[in-house]
Amino acid sequence: MARKDFLDIVSLDRAEIIHLLDQAEPFKDLFTRSVKKVPALKGKTVLMLFYEPSTRTLSSFEVAAKRLSADVTIFDVPHSSVTKGESVRDTIDTLQAMRADYIVVRHRLSGQPAAIARQTNASVINAGDGAHAHPTQALLDAFTLREVYPELPGRKVVIMGDILHSRVARSTSTILDKLGVEVAFCGPGSLVPKTRFKRFTNYEEAMNWGPDAVYQLRVQKERQDAPFYPSDREYHAVYGITEERLKEISDKGIYVMHPGPINRGVELCDAVLDYDRCLIPQQVENGIATRMAVLFGLKPDLKNEPS
Amino acid sequence: MNLFLQGGEVATENDAPQRADVWILDGVIKNVGVIDVPEGARVIDCAGKIVMPGMFDAHVHFREPGQEKKETILDGTEAAINGGITGVVMMPNTSPSVDSPTVVKRVLEQGEKCRIPVLTSACITVNRAGHEMAPIAGLKEAGILMLTDDGDAVPNAALLKRAMEYGKEFDMFFASHCEDPQLCGPRALNEGPVSYRLGIQGTPALAEEICMDRDIRLAHATGAMLHIQHVSSAIGMETIRWWRDERGAKVSGEVSPHHLMFADEDIGDYDTHYKMNPPLRTREDNAALLQGLKDGVFRIIATDHAPHTDFEKSQAFVDAPNGITGLDTALVSLHDRFVVTGEFGWDLIVKRYSAEPRRMMRLEVAEVSEGKPVDLIVFDPDKETTFTKEFMRSRSSNTPFLNRTLKGSVEMVVLGDEILLER
């Protein structure tokens, strides 16, 4: 894979995805050893540019980069000249002078990482942009699902919740589809756009479809500028995994996934976290290995001066 | 000036181009037909070329006063000349807005310095804010004919109704940018599979359809004349047709070259040269709008020339400003996309992009016929034009045609006693 940037899943083909998943496996094995580091990116610099608050993705990338022996710089956006109104373009021109090899970007605007990638010779990794894409989340989701189902084609996954505002739904549905998994969306009618995937607005109908895993999304309260459903309470009752529904899920042996952070009592009841087929902890652990594979596979274009 | 355009095809709004010589003397068309070369005339070989009246663009944004980095009135008119356009109507969303006789005067004074006539429209509401009515009588006195809050709809239907009732006395006509503000997404992007793929909340065509229906109803009820600007959707087009044909409403429509040619899927990977408001819709809408143009639902073609700097347009799609330039490219692109392919002929272009917009603005129609003042262009359908930054005269180059080569070339522009352009 001679890509410069890692911006979305749509532009990857199946072979590239499988190659990345395969690459992540030895990295994961590394975590069981006493020395968890390899010298693959020794002397390289990874810059974290997070315009949106994030704990798990930021630290996951940081750990991944450090386990590859890279130097990591976290650009402190809240305390930077960005708050003085500096444009993203001017910030990138400034950072270019620091000669970072990799820039990991999260931004509230869809398409911002793509705009940055056109401006810099460093490899740009999209750590989530608006409602557009979260490709490393998709990769870790696929990796996690492949651990429990080594044969992915023909498996069924229903992604539930706020599809409309979710970059996770977009990227994860795309990667699973490319790997042969049957994908469906389920959620309130106001939050599930019509796409080429099967669409449910009724929880029971979605479960009767026979999914192997239920992927609950975080209800994106911070991204909703207008009401799309009446209340969290009603949401939980109609589309959340309640105690009662967890029993059905458990009886059928269905896996539960979630990108985190969770809203307890909205999309999930607390008991889900103790359910033995809840894959949330594995998702977090696999995030590091898959992000290592992404960093390892990219080729910054540092010979040329920035355009 | 004594000019003899020999052997060209003279285009009119009613018929296919006819072979004729055109003799121009001192700003007047002396003769059109089969003529001997007049004594002392400079002869221009026009064999295989189209000779037709200058185009007129009734929807341009020249950014002056206030945003001269994007465009000035002077550069905007030079871009028009470069594209074979010999008259324009500016939109009032400058900074300050054209909402008072003082600003109108300032704009028209700048326009006087240009080589083609510059008209301007003015706001319906003060500062286009949708709260108070602009001084309509004063604007009329300053020479304003068209009122519009272009860039946005008037959000308050009662205010628009009152402005229409009041403006009737002053013989104003209203032009509407139709988009229901509440149905609009925060960004100029059609709601559909493309907006989902890009992860940006879109604006459904419904926003245009509903607002258009509202504005036409208000105009019909108050007796105001209404012009609907830059229609983007099939149902929007049908809305005008229905009100005009079934209810006799005094409503006209406008279509831009980009809404005829491009669709949201052309945005690809966040290409901001396809971002404008109202947004590009679908291929089906392109086809319906083209049919509407052929059927005469659209009275005029206008570019909505909207210059922005490279820096502004290189931001992320959601942050980049709305609009693309059009004056340098419009005529050549219409030729390349529609005349070459046989979708329509030169008569439609002359009617919809030269004659009707002038009638709408109550100006004398430019014609290549005996005794008329000179206002004409020569177009070579066999030559090609490559739209490089250097070629285009607009101060900005935010167009999908940047660095693309299209069939056709504006070879000459003659207005009054002056050759404005000769390649």
Tally of individual domains of chain A: 2
Count the helices of chain A. How many?
10
Radius of gyration of chain B: 21 Å
Largest sheet: number of strands, sense, barrel closure of chain B: 8 strands, mixed
Mean pLDDT of chain A: 91
What is the percentage of strand-forming residues of chain A? 5-15%
The CATH superfamily of the largest domain in chain A is identified as: Aspartate/ornithine carbamoyltransferase
Enter the CATH topology name of the largest domain in chain B.
TIM Barrel
CATH superfamily of the largest domain in chain B: Metal-dependent hydrolases
- Give the helix proportion of chain B (percent range): 25-40%
Output the structural class of chain A: alpha/beta
Terminal CA distance of chain A reads 23 Å
CATH architecture of the largest domain in chain B: Alpha-Beta Barrel
Please give the order of strands in the largest beta sheet of chain A: 7-6-5-8-9
For this structure, the CATH topology of the largest domain in chain A is Rossmann fold
Q: Structural class of the helices, strands and pairings of chain B? A: alpha/beta
- In CATH, the architecture of the largest domain in chain A is 3-Layer(aba) Sandwich
Description:
The complex is a heterodimer of chains A (307) and B (423). Chain A folds into two domains: 14-133 and 286-297, Aspartate/ornithine carbamoyltransferase (Rossmann fold, 3-Layer(aba) Sandwich), CATH 3.40.50.1370; 135-284, Aspartate/ornithine carbamoyltransferase (Rossmann fold, 3-Layer(aba) Sandwich). Chain A has ten helices and nine strands. Chain A has helices at residues 14-30, 56-67, 88-96, 112-119, 135-148, 167-178, 203-208, 232-239, 243-252, 280-297; strands at 45-50, 71-75, 102-107, 123-129, 156-160, 182-186, 198-200, 213-216, 255-257. Chain A has a five-stranded parallel beta sheet with strand order 7-6-5-8-9. In chain A, helix 5 (135-148) packs across helix 6. Chain A starts with 13 loop residues before the first helix and ends in a 10-residue tail after the last helix. Chain B is built from twelve helices and 16 strands. In chain B, the strands form three sheets. In chain B, strands 1, 2, 3, 4, 5, 14, 15 and 16 form an eight-stranded mixed beta sheet that branches. In chain B, strands 9-10-11-12-13 form a five-stranded parallel beta sheet. Chain B has a three-stranded parallel beta sheet with strand order 6-7-8. Chain B is 29% helix and 22% strand. Chain B is α/β, with parallel strands linked by helices and 423 residues long. In chain B, helix 4 packs parallel to helix 6 (205-222) and helix 6 (205-222) runs parallel beside helix 7 (234-247). Chain B has two domains: 2-51 and 370-394 and 403-422, Urease, subunit C, domain 1; 53-360, TIM Barrel, CATH 3.20.20. The chains are: A alpha/beta (307), B alpha/beta (423). The interface between A and B is medium-sized, with 24 and 17 residues.
